[in-house]
Amino acid sequence: MTMTFLMCFFYLQFILRRTNALLSNHLPPKIVEVVCCKLTPLQSELYNHFIQSKNVKRVINEQAKHSKILAYITALKKLCNHPKLIYDTMKGGNSGISGFEDCLQFFPPEVFSGRSGVWTGGDGIWVELSGKMHVLARF
């Protein structure tokens, strides 16, 4: 019993638990700001392609596993952040993003350098391809 007490005593000396009640006295209030961003034409095309895909229609019409639905939500979050995230996944040969099959045709060819197919994103194209990045670039 005494050994357990000593272990707890030493253990608790090294654990620092910051509760919300403690932090609220020392931090300014949390401010959450929701900013709505328009999709770029590329994002809209990719979104429409995603919604019209056979796999997504099958999931919508059937009772799908929650893990599959979460994968689709994650794919849409990637699309909303920046289309390059979808491009990288598809170019890497990852079939994990069902619904974006054959979507490489939507990406503008001027963002690729030479024959290697490496994404260059030059001349502000990084910002122009994402509505979210367009808003963030203003700050």
Description of the structure:
The mean pLDDT is 78. The relative contact order is 0.13. The chain has 8 helices and 2 strands; from the N terminus they run ααααααββαα. 53% of the residues lie in helices and 3% in strands. It is elongated. It has 139 residues and is an all-alpha fold. A two-stranded antiparallel sheet has the order 1-2. The N and C termini lie far apart (59 Å).
Structure summary:
With 139 residues, the chain is mostly helical. It is built from eight helices and two strands. β1 (112-113) and β2 (118-119) form a beta hairpin.
Name some characteristics of this structure.
mainly alpha
**What is the residue-mean pLDDT, rounded to a whole number?**
78
Q: Give the percentage of residues in beta strands.
A: under 5%
* SS field, number of helical segments: 8
Run of helices and strands: HHHHHHEEHH
Q: Give the terminus-to-terminus CA distance.
A: 59 Å
Q: Low-confidence runs (pLDDT<50, min 5 residues)?
A: none
What is the strand and helix layout of this fold?
Layout: H1 2-14, H2 20-24, H3 41-52, H4 54-61, H5 66-81, H6 83-91, E1 112-113, E2 118-119, H7 125-128, H8 131-136
Antiparallel strand pairs: 1-2
Helix pairs in contact: 5-6
